[in-house]
Specification:
The protein is α/β, with parallel strands linked by helices. It contains 12 helices and 10 strands. It has helices at about 15-20, 40-55, 80-85, 100-120, 135-140, 140-145, 155-160, 170-190, 205-215, 230-235, 240-260, 275-290, and strands at about 5-10, 25-30, 65-70, 95, 125-130, 150-155, 190-195, 220-225, 265, 270. Helix 2 (about 40-55) runs parallel beside helix 3 (about 80-85). The radius of gyration is 20 Å and the shape is globular. The two termini are about 20 Å apart.
Length: about 300
């Protein structure tokens, strides 16, 4: 999921266009992007679109697209209604805003399970948990480990920085938050997606943040405008050099296993299990994008 494009649920004229675009994932937003007075209208609009999408093969989900819905928070009067409207075969996960404890996540998971049972949905919808408050950051590992439905953590710097009065232009502060959330995700054995970048007219700034996130092992970055999608796709795409190096590592690992060799060099670097796993991860990503041979 190199790129995750937010789509306001109150803008149905954008739905089909976003679906046909190049973003790996779409996050239909019922929360921040929708004014309070329009929440119910946006919910009905999105429900109709998801129902229409669910009627399409295969299995109700567009090929190559991950569909996410950012619902309103647990403490709002909209959460239960949001779930009732959007739980469908078309949806891969919900984006849960501002969880601040494992109990929050488990409550969301239980609510999802109830609605899925009522709808007869045969597979569980995942939870992408937003880390966007001081308490949420402090308890990020607990949140990440709270329930098997939690598939990833998403950094949210806007809300996270506000209580601290931190300037978003401070690259050191951004890096510190990126690292904290990435470490929490790694400890829980799940992935992390990087935050949005609000200045659409600053592609260089977006790219700098994306590159910093990729160096930390993030799988992708959120986008608030379609012009940011190709930037994310380019940054989080395995490069040709990375793919070639990964192929050499995996081939050397196979040879070492056949010959009973425990330590060996590839391109002048000592290779052990973590390097092999990283190479295999690069090749899986490359194969999904059609950039490496199937075997």
């Amino acid at each position: 999921m190199r790129s995750k494009l937010f789509v306001p649920a109150s803008r149905p004229e954008l739905f089909a266009k976003a679906l046909a675009g190049d973003a790996d994932a779409l996050s239909f937003d019922l929360e921040d992007a929708v004014q309070e007075a329009r929440k119910a209208e946006a919910r009905r609009t999105l429900e109709a679109f998801l129902r229409q999408t669910s009627d399409r093969p295969p299995g109700g989900r567009p090929v190559g697209k991950i569909l996410i819905v950012r619902v309103n928070g647990l403490t709002t009067p909209h959460f239960e209604a949001d779930l009732a409207a959007i739980v469908s075969p078309a949806v891969d996960m919900i984006n849960l805003p501002k969880p601040e404890s494992a109990e929050d996540v488990r409550a969301a998971a239980a609510a999802l399970a109830r609605v899925e049972a009522e709808c007869g949905l045969g597979r569980p919808i995942g939870i992408l948990a937003n880390i966007e408050s001081p308490r949420g950051l402090r308890l990020a590992v607990e949140i990440a480990r709270a329930h098997p439905r939690v598939v990833g953590l998403q950094l949210g710097l806007g809300d996270l920085f506000e209580p601290f009065g931190i300037d978003r232009a401070d690259a050191r502060a951004v890096h510190a938050m990126q690292l904290a959330v990435r470490l929490a995700a790694a400890e829980a054995g799940i992935w992390a997606c990087d935050t949005v970048y609000g200045t659409v007219a600053d592609p260089d700034g977006y790219t700098r943040e994306a590159e910093a996130a990729r160096r930390l092992g993030y799988i992708g970055k959120s986008c608030i405008h379609p012009t940011q999608v190709p930037l994310a796709n380019a940054v989080f795409r395995p490069s040709d050099a990375e793919i070639a190096a990964a192929l050499r590592v995996v081939e050397a690992a196979r040879g070492a296993e056949r010959n009973g060799v425990g330590a060996y060099l590839v391109d002048g670097r000592m290779i052990d299990t973590p390097f092999v796993k990283r190479a295999e991860s690069v090749l899986r990503a490359a194969r999904r994008l059609g950039l490496a041979p199937a075997r």
